[in-house]
Amino acid sequence: MALSAGLLTACAAVDSTVPPAGAPVATVTAEQTTWKNVPTQVLTAGGVDFAYRELGQPHGGTPVVFLGHLAAVLDNWDPRVMDGFAARHHLVAFDNRGVGASTGSPANTVEQMADDAITFIKAKGFQQVDLFGFSMGGMIAQEIALKEPQLVRKLILTGTGPAGGPGISTVAGVANLDLLRATFTGQDPKQYLFFTRTPGGIEAGKAFLNRLQERTAPRDKAIALGAYVAQLQALSAWGQKPPADLSLIRQPVLVANGSDDRMVPTRNSYDLAARLPHSELIVYPDAGHGGIFQYHEDFVPRALAFLAK
Question: Is-above-0.85 flag for pTM?
């Protein structure tokens, strides 16, 4: 348990105050707002107060809903990716139940996380959305598309894999190993978990971690240990689940990853692209789980072009 707590502390954002449900939120124009200063808001739905941030063009077509990775809260999204998408689109990212500043008991299955995301999306009044899922978020996105296909226009699945994919059920072991490596070297575990150990990967990791600190206040609450454990349970179950029939996902899908993903092995991305009828695949060289962050200058324009087709 000590290992999990240490990884939790290193991977999540610091605590801060989030406005209570119903509290007024300062209005900031789209021209003035970036990911590092956009206000955190609260939406109550299904008995949960969901903490979320909303950015970009309110009339920029289909909204893009971002679904995050293991142990992530709102402050774990790369500002370059969020600001890049917000230049063209209306985007929303939220903490699932029991995660970060959202209330409720944390879900311990991907299916329940998908149900909660559907509840949030409908409570926002969105008739249809594009889904951007990174890692665990990509698994949630697949479930949403299978559960309620009419709700989804397009999907971007990054650093993720299908149900029953190789290596997914052992994410906890990989994470704890890299926690030990980080502890002995005095580094953030994401330097090992998200990036390769080549000179290019190391420098990309440092730049990414610096970007995550651009927002100074108010920051999201750190994920609680119980929520982190619940997410590990969900990933283990997803990795042992029988494969789904992904041919049922008829929407266009962009799949992306790094060539050397240790958390969700890259062969899962190839499998996803092969099993999805209308998919495109990007695999970045000399990159790991966080390949889209390492190559954000290439990835964001390509993702925007995909959504614009």
Answer: yes
